[in-house]
Amino acid sequence: MSDDPGRTREALDRVAARLLDASVYERVGIAVGSTGLALLIGLVVVAAAGHNPLLFAQQLVVGSVGSTGAFTRTLRFTTLFILAGVAVAVAFRAGVFNIGVQGQLVVGGIACVLSILWLAPFVPNGPVGGAGLTLVGLFAAVVAGGLYAALPGVLKAYYGANEIITTIMLNFIAIGIVGWAVDGPLRPDDARSVRTEYLPEGVGLPSLVFSDPNFSILGLGLALAVVGVVAVGMTRTSFGYDMVTSGYQASAATFSGVDPQRTIVATMTLSGMVAGLVGAVFAIMIQGYFIDPSGIGTYGFDAIAVSLLAANNPVGVVPASLLFGALESSGSHVQIHSDVPVQLIDGIVGIVVLFVAAPELFRMLAKRTGLGGEKR
Amino acid sequence: LGDENGGGGGDQVAIISSDAGFGDNAFNDNALEGLEEAADEFDLEVTQVEETETAEFAARQEDLAEDGSYDLIVMVGYQHYEGLAEHSETYPDQYWMLINDHVEGADNVSGWIEMNNEMSFLAGVAAATLTQEEIEHDDSATDPDEAVVGFAGGEDIDLINAFEESYIEGVEWVDDGVDVLTGYGGSFSDSEALNDVATSQFDDGADIVWHAAAAAGAGAFAAAQDNDRFAMGVDSDQSVADDQYADVILGSAIKALDEATYQVTEAVVEDDWDSVSGEQNLSIEEEEGIDFVVGQEFEGELPDSLEENIEEAKEAYVAGEVDLTCGPTGC
Amino acid sequence: MTADAPPAVRLEEITKTFGDVVANDAVDFRLERESIHALLGENGSGKTTLMNVLYGLYEQDAGTIHVDGEPRSFDSPQDAMAAGIGMIHQHFQLVEPMTVLQNVVLGHEPIDGGLVDEDAAREEIEALCNRYGFDVDDHLETPVEELDLGTRQRVEIVKSLYRGADTLILDEPTAVLTPQEVEGLLDLLEELRASGRSLIFISHKLEEVLAAADRITVLRDGHAVDTVAAADTSRQELARMMVGREVSFERPAREAVPGEPVLETEELSIVGDRGLERVSEIDLTVRAHEILGIAGVQGNGQTELIEALTGHRVPDEGRVHLRGEEITDVGRRQRLEAGIAAIPEDRNAEGLVQEYDLVKNALLGNQTVPPYANDGWLDWSAVETHAEEIIEEFDVHPPDPTARAGSLSGGNQQKFIVGREIGHDPDVLIAAHPTRGVDVGSLEFIHDRLLELREEGLGIVLISSKLDELRALADRIVVMYEGAFIDEVDPIETSDAELGLLMAGQRLEEEAERETGDRSTLGETRPEPDAEATVDRRSGGDRER
Amino acid sequence: MSLATGASRRRLRLGGLALLAAVALAAVLVVQFDVPLERILTVGFLNRTLMLASPIALAAVGGLYAEKSGVFNIGLEGFMIFGAITAAATLSLVGASSQLHVWLAIVVAVGVSLVLTAGYAVLLIRYKADQIVAGLAVWFIGLGFAPFLASLLWGTVRSPGLASMNRYSVPYLSELPVVGSILFNQSPLVVLTLAVVIAAWVVLYRTRYGYWVQAAGENPTALDTAGIDVNRVRYATVLFSGAMAGLGGAVLLAHAGTFIGTGDTMVDGRGWIAIVAYLFGNYNPIGAALAALLFGGLEGLQVQFQTVDIAVSGRLMGLLPYVGVIVVLTVWGKTRMPSSVGEPYESEE
Ligand SMILES: Nc1ncnc2c1ncn2[C@@H]1O[C@H](COP(=O)(O)OP(=O)(O)OP(=O)(O)O)[C@@H](O)[C@H]1O
Ligand SMILES: Nc1ncnc2c1ncn2[C@@H]1O[C@H](COP(=O)(O)OP(=O)(O)OP(=O)(O)O)[C@@H](O)[C@H]1O
Ligand SMILES: [Mg+2]
Ligand SMILES: [Mg+2]
């Protein structure tokens, strides 16, 4: 990196300029269009089912940002979606379809909790010990998530096993094995529920700014920091260029000296590391112990939608996560205050993804309606 | 209590499902049924919250408590315990009802422990009794010469293992010589998998299969119909709830959850919380807390040995002569 | 040719535009019956477009098509086929895992009781083959992917004939053939003409055109410049018509003498992906100030040899040295950094990332090389400067660093790649088919640059299927056959015919025997087709859209 | 089989070896641990394997047609869910429960799946949607809307007990040992599946439509220049894949008799297994069906083990098929995928 600030600045400007070319507007347009259209369809379904769509729309808003509680809840989901979304984006960008973020976050989460529980007896109580354990837990999660994702990476790179299928299978396997362990060997005798031991006092992220015990602004900060690191890494480093180029055109990347197999494994590992972090944040910030993973939200799957909505751009993942966080958050409110079956929200999310997959549709629509000018 | 939130006609109560969700025709629906009955009776409004992610249980409890408009919040399933242990303190003025567990020292919680082990024990007694009898109904029949019964579980987890173990102990209490075939479908939603488990057991000689698989249990009933054998229901009288299969449901091992939710709601409405506060039990010892009921198409058709054995088993249990290995939620 | 019969095809004022690009601008074209008519023109001059219009793939914006004197309009190739027009595309339109028979009948399957009647099809194809002396019927049950390129092309021709084509269009049919196969093809064309068919063929190779065609139409920038009789014109004249200026075919004088060896291999052997030995015991030496040409029919191990030199493949035996240092196990990246540049065989798939702009493409291969990268951090401004330099020096059009690589024409893409690869002072350049599909103007430019680089001291390995290119550039030519260097020849002393024989595995003394051989057995004496080449073509982006 | 390439022959040989090894290992285990084989490998087990395999085989045959023609329909799981919920809703709405109504429900399910797939196909083919993403979206939509619909219809995410498909029984013939029970005392849907598989094989390898399907996936331009509309072929195969997945879901429901929408729904991953099945079967309908049979057999075998009380942790054993899929993909990973899968085709004008 150049240490002349002027040059650095100039270079950054150029990067920004390239990122923000017309196609970025187009992508934003597509994202907004997809979401809008999907919500519209959702509202039509609500109306067709005999409920008041306006009321439903209002409840979506109130349930996500209508009160401090709702807003904190939205941010809590957003934090998880950002991390999981970045995990997906890293892989998709590099042309590797990691559908296994859910399994990797489960493995990361349990590794986090176990490492903390194992080490806790050797660490002094108190804030310093707690912080140390927290760091250990995050580290363990990153390592475990990375390793668990490296496996399908290796299978793809060296054995040609389709990663879409293997990662889906590994999701089932992670959830099954961890579920079995949490219900059996890892379950303390006095536990009423299916869970591990509680994390020791002092482990966790302090509740600053918001009083919600299950949300810490530090968690959100961590997620945003990961976004920053990944975004810079992708655009400003050789490794990032190798990865992204492999995603665009593997043959050209290979010819330019990129080792395709190693890149696939590295990509999966990196993606899994971030996914592992999701599990750690879930365990440390929200749960305080680990539960049967079949009871954990499907952040890893929803993250696919998040990432796609963001066109697999790590920075774009942030607004997309806010949207998904809000939708997820409003689910609770809708449940309580509306008769509309809450599964509708999952369906709407699916439609968003479907539309995001078909940018051409929106180009066509834009052309028909004369919006968005002459693109393409 | 609750007079100040006068909106929307009558007072409000809420219920949060277990991770199996409503629509299981068993556990959750049974609890809901009692609540709705009470709601009719006392002009209440019931808010159903279906939450299938256990990780979100605590948050749902908080959402409802924070809202402040619910006179009673009912939670189905012991997985709610962790969250409630905290929230019963944070919201001391909120009345809570927990099904399947109780919170020590929290007198705003009415904690109902349902003795699943006792219920399973009775199911075992019934199955072992009936397999040796000659029963014919529509196309189905038992094979009285062979004494084999089946157990078909949903997920292979500690909770259901306790059902299995207690069922076997019930069978053995009647007759050591009765074989019990067991199997798990691996899911509470995959009825086809449970169908396969039950059919495999019917093939291997079982003439009665009892399921503990929530919604997927329908697969066991369908299997009984296809194989001209019998099945038994769980939690509530499933010959009523699942009347499509009434012709093969000999009976159901039940727990009076609906009674319990009704009773607690009534206590709230009549300002008599103390009567339900703290640990409550749904057990054989309580009047009709745990029981075995004959299926609606089989009333009066089953041999007297069934009622005799069930009554005898209950008495033996109350007298402390039966020692079950497993507790209500695990071994 | 009967004087009063209408021409087989007459195109009148055909205009076809793509957005702002006028691919064909009021083109007139007349194909006489029973004649061979060549279409000549630079890349992008509109040849393929014109033929696609005739074949019903494109609809013209203006103009009319007459077939046998009747005005026709074709909405689809099916219409064109019904009118007796067949087209053999530059990139074969064959379904590789399907058999030859299935490929030939595709879209015109004889049906018996709802099922495809393969027996009926077989009879008909055999009859066709016997009539023209094709060997295709020997392979009817063979999947196309197991055939060599020459046979595939004959399958394409049989396919058209099977569909009843009277007029055959062949788009750059000779691009992938050996000289002997080219000769065979041209003979076949004459036979087809003799049987009453009319043929159009497109080529960039002036000699071929002059040898085979009755008439030649030259296109430039979408205009038909002129139509001339082959007998009345010359290479020089044709080139001038194509490019619009004089083109030199002179070989510039060599100044520097070869220096120290820079790249050497020692008994290099490679077992290919299918377990066959692809390269056997090759000793190769390239010196500074030297261009070493490698001639050979595609699929004789060149691809594997190139990979071993560039660092994309570890040889099974033998060693590779760079300036005396062993680099056998060194991967592509370090070799790049050590000064081995390479122009890829397949520019669409390997040379450029089609979706990237030219700036991002300028980094390709340089992503660990200072000044573009320092300790893993990229310096985009340096890359951008580099891109601008390449564009300027190599006259890349459009001169816009933010243009998407995929939007450039083939020649411009190639110039950009050459510029990038020699941009950071390599010691060695492995140039694989550096002018494949490139028009005469760009070709001249690239040739000049390669010669300049040789003067500057580079050691260049030039792999090409074009003999004239090898003869124009190389200081020495080695001929590769079945994985081995079977001979080394002097580019000036050796004739095309001699080189061609060597490439077919015949040592020069065997020539006499060879002369009596039957042409139709040519395909069988060929080595097995190269598995990788097949894969590359499939995955590559250069498929005709 | 003129289309059996060297690679698939090699794979067959490898598969044969693996099978032999498995049989040998099983034999050792049986002798060593005194396994009651006659209680495990029963006729009923074979029968149930066929039942378990049918929905998977149907979806797999559909999926392989789409992929053969160049469109990766990764939405099979979603369409199976739609098939199941539609069949359940139909049965529930008509309210009657004769076998005829079950057939009606299946037909309606296929019809609705066709309509839904039509929209999906337009997105994929006309609007060139990313096939992987769109397919995942179908799964998400299925997971959301099926329970939603169930809630609207029945107040809960689960249907009440509905009519199910009965086995037919051919008098006398069904008394024959083994064959009698498998062929003549069988669910008609198993027979239907068998018919679909065989028909799919014949059409793919013996008719012109089959040639077109193969060409559309390998080299669409070749097909186009032969005068066949590539996208029409692809529309047809995608529609077929959706219909078959829907049929698979309906068959599942017709056997199970209840729709359940909690968790992963009653379809429970079968659509994913279907994809693996046709990959494993190397895009050959019969191969895919055999692979489906293998997965069905694995699932059934695990239940048999439990029934005869061979100690296995059900929860861990339940993961075996997933591990099996990974092993299969790793060992046989390099299936010959059609070259143009995932690339939208645009004919020049
Ligand atoms: N599908 C298309 N879309 C847009 N423009 C096109 C398309 N096909 C061709 N063109 C334009 O038409 C011009 C003529 O292209 P064409 O392919 O006919 O050239 P050609 O003479 O066959 O070139 P070559 O010798 O390289 O094969 C091109 O320069 C290009 O700009
Ligand atoms: N589908 C297309 N869309 C837009 N432009 C196209 C398309 N196809 C071709 N072109 C344009 O056509 C021009 C040349 O195309 P063409 O394929 O004829 O290149 P070429 O010079 O023949 O290269 P090659 O020899 O590698 O095929 C390019 O400038 C490109 O912009
Ligand atoms: Mg052309
Ligand atoms: Mg060209």
UniProtKB/TrEMBL annotation, chain A:
From the Swiss-Prot or TrEMBL record, state where the protein is found. Cell membrane
Q: Where is the signal peptide?
A: none
Entries under InterPro entries matching the protein: ABC_transp_permease
What is an example of a GO molecular function annotated in this UniProt entry? Answer: transmembrane transporter activity
Q: Which UniProt keywords apply?
A: Cell membrane, Membrane, Transmembrane, Transmembrane helix
Can you tell which superkingdom this protein's organism belongs to?
Archaea
Major subcellular site: membrane
Gene Ontology cellular component terms for the protein in this record: plasma membrane
Q: Matching PANTHER family, A to Z?
A: ABC TRANSPORTER, PERMEASE PROTEIN (PTHR47089), GUANOSINE ABC TRANSPORTER PERMEASE PROTEIN NUPP (PTHR47089:SF1)
- What name does the UniProt record give this protein? Inner-membrane translocator
From TrEMBL, chain C:
Q: How is this protein positioned relative to the membrane? A: Peripheral membrane protein
Where is this chain's protein located in or outside the cell? Cell membrane
Q: What is its main location?
A: membrane
> Can you name a GO cellular component term?
plasma membrane
Organism's domain of life? Archaea
Domain named ABC transporter is located at 9-246, 263-507
Quote the InterPro entries the UniProt record gives.
AAA+_ATPase (IPR003593), ABC_carbohydrate_import_ATPase (IPR050107), ABC_transporter-like_ATP-bd (IPR003439), ABC_transporter-like_CS (IPR017871), P-loop_NTPase (IPR027417)
Region ranges (Disordered)? 505-545
Q: Which UniProt keywords apply?
A: ATP-binding, Cell membrane, Membrane, Nucleotide-binding, Repeat, Translocase, Transport
Bias class Basic and acidic residues marks the residues at 525-545
Give GO terms: molecular function aspect only: ATP binding; ATP hydrolysis activity
Name-wise, this protein is ABC transporter
Automatic annotation (TrEMBL), chain D:
InterPro entries named among the record's database cross-references: ABC_transp_permease
Segments passing through the bilayer = 12-33, 45-66, 78-96, 102-125, 132-157, 177-204, 238-260, 272-295, 316-333
Any idea which GO molecular function terms this record carries?
Answer: transmembrane transporter activity
For this record, the Gene Ontology CC terms, alphabetical, are: plasma membrane
**Annotated compartments:** Cell membrane
Q: Known Pfam families for this protein?
A: BPD_transp_2 (PF02653)
What topology does it adopt in the membrane?
Answer: Multi-pass membrane protein
PANTHER family, per database record: GUANOSINE ABC TRANSPORTER PERMEASE PROTEIN NUPQ, SUGAR ABC TRANSPORTER INTEGRAL MEMBRANE PROTEIN-RELATED
Quote the protein name from its UniProt record.
Inner-membrane translocator
